[in-house]
Amino acid sequence: MPSIEKxxxxxxxxxxxxxxxxxxxxxxxxxxxxxxDVRVLLAFPDVYxxxxxHLGLKILYHIINGQQDMLAERVYAPWTDMEGLLRxxxxxxxxxxxxxxxxxxxxxGFTLQYELSYxxxxxxxxxxxxxxxxxxxxxxxxxxxxxxxxAFNPEPIAPFFDLFLLGDGEEALLPILxxxxxxxxxxxxxxxxxxxxxxxxxxxxxxxxxxxEERYDTGGVYLGTTPSKPEAPxxxxxxxxxxxxxxxxxxxxxxxxxxxVHDRIMLELFRGCTRGCRFCQAGMIYRPVRERSVERxxxxxxxxxxxxxxxxxxxxxxxxxxxxxILDLVKDLSRDLKDRGVNLSLPSLxxxxxxxxxxxxxxxxxKSGLTFAxxxxxxxxxxxxxxxxxxxxxxxxxxxxxxxxxxxxxxYFMLGLPTEGEEDLQGIVDLCEKILRRGRQAAGKKIKxxxxxxxxxxxxxxxFQWSRHISREEMKERQQFLRERLRGxxxxxxxxxxxxxxxxxxxxxxxxxxxxxLMEALRLGCxxxxxxxxxxxxxxxxxxxxxxxxxxAYTRELDPEVPLPWDHLESGVSKKYLLREYQKALRxxxxxxxxxxxxxxxxxxxxxxxxxxxxxxV
Length: 618
What we know:
The chain has 618 residues and is of the alpha/beta class.
């Protein structure tokens, strides 16, 4: 039989984007499998362009390949044209670097970023010839693991995984790989898999789902998840990096041969956020705040520019303008980059004059559009979601931006937020009209306002985890309300598909009873459900029907007194704090940023902080 590499070379002219499958990019790492004790395949369940843009995958690739006796290779979800050819030719899913079948790796590690990628995960396992349910895998199969934000409620997909890693991958992954190396290849022998998982379950942040059982009453009401093996802790704590300056970070990014979503150098300023937006899962699960020094960031920028040739450096974090020395950093980097013709970008800006000053500094090389996220159209609703920004701040900042020469501003809002009414929808319209009026006074009629709305999805480990997810009909009605009013010269309105938002909401707060739905959806041909051109909601309706599951049951308001499917998985933020914030939201009471004053007692346990009224956890 011809080698995979030769067959792939023959197939590449028949697919739309051959560079997705080449694997010989600049700065990719190719190691000899014979010299590695642990071989890991890092799997991203979306296309190459999306997966190559993910910073977490770059960091883990760097860490593993930095170990002398370990190796990491990559695989991304093949687009439909390549999948068809693989199945036609009888080829398995393969790694990019060495074109090795996925099933021949010791460990396949997926990142769980988005609920609508779950069918891609199952499809990638199927293309690899690996049994989908973890319980059906034998000694010859690789371990299937996952991490990322989705690991904080992986229950809908838990039956397909051997283990999940909670928290920062820099802390969570290497102990598992070291344990695997200690076991040698005994995990590939009869009984070795179970023995490995029993030891792994005792490691911090390691969740072995087969060692836990979900309990339901006779009416199907969820009663909780409890350990079924003595090695499994009742609650799994997350890992987190204590010091970002000493944490591993790539000094060379893989440079693709095609455009990717974020085709630039990414510098992570800090991790975590204390602003306390009540809808934001990332702001809760990535606490506490940890920062990189200006000196370390400049050092990384220099090494990454020298090794990659990129023309843009992006300063990333959940709220980058909250970095304490952001202005100093931006000025230093702008000076470092300007002579090279490299642009500096700061994608996550607050709506205030300080952010505008930053935007002016970072866009000295090329001036692009500005993006802001008011999230809600009225002050009442911004107080509910704890988005601490006033309308006048929004108007003044954008007006100054038009005065400074920007001509395009993009605004993000959410629909279906808790307590939202028609007056809040009208508030979006009124705010946009005020912005247009001020913009035209400042810069004439050439200004453009792009308005986008997504639908709020209740996420685990947030104050809104108990909230109702509005129905698809309500989504469509609210979008229609805005479509009729956000029109005319200078304004463009776009919105997110209600059907995909609904599905995201179902799996976001789901339990293991959704696993058969995923199996049915895969059999029916569901793939790339986050892609509008491939998403087929009618197939999902059929999958729910065949599995005997009512999806609407997962979108209802939840009783705070009832157990949640993710209660045994700790984000570090206490349920008591989340409930307190939820109750304040319903009363329309905002909470301050704890970095600016008194600790709010979120429960994150770090030395010198974490107790209400004590030193903040930053």
